[in-house]
């Protein structure tokens, strides 16, 4: 089914994005918190970027869940 393949492709894309976010989080956690004011500002910028990406991912994930629910509902005939 084309719809099923599209959902699987979207899930694969979301999985890749999730893995990237996980790597970003690990990198942020491993980064030294002390340093020059410039270092602190750069770290804070990376944290803000990470948080923005997480929010976007969560919106995409919710939209994907809704598509899966609609697909499952249509497939079951309800």
What features would you highlight for this structure?
about 80 residues, mainly alpha, 2 helices, about 0% strand, elongated
Could you please describe the fold and organization of this structure?
The longest helix has about 40 residues, at about 35-75. The protein is an all-alpha fold and about 80 residues long. The two termini are about 20 Å apart. It contains two helices and no strands.
H/E element order: HH
Biggest sheet character: none
Count of individual beta strands: 0
Structural class of the helix and strand makeup? mainly alpha
Strand content of the residues, in percent?
under 5%
The outline comes out as: elongated
Termini distance? 19 Å
Please summarize what this structure is.
About 90% of the residues lie in helices and about 0% in strands. The chain has about 80 residues and is mostly helical.
Any chance you could write out the topology, listing elements then pairs?
Layout: H1 2-30, H2 37-76
Helix pairs in contact: 1-2
């Amino acid at each position: 089914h084309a719809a099923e393949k599209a959902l699987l492709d979207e899930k694969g894309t979301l999985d890749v994005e999730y893995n990237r976010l996980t790597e970003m989080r690990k990198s942020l956690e491993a980064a030294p918190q002390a340093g020059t004011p410039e270092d602190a500002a750069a770290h804070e910028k990376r944290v803000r970027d990470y948080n923005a990406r997480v929010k976007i991912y969560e919106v995409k994930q919710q939209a994907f869940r809704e598509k899966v629910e609609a697909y499952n509902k249509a497939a079951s005939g309800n």
